[in-house]
Amino acid sequence: MIKHLRGRLEYRSPTQAVVDVGGVGYGLNISLTTFDSLPEVGADVHLFTYTYVREDRLGLFGFAAEAERSMFVLLIGVSGI
Question: Does the structure show a pLDDT above 90 at 79?
Answer without folding.
Answer: no
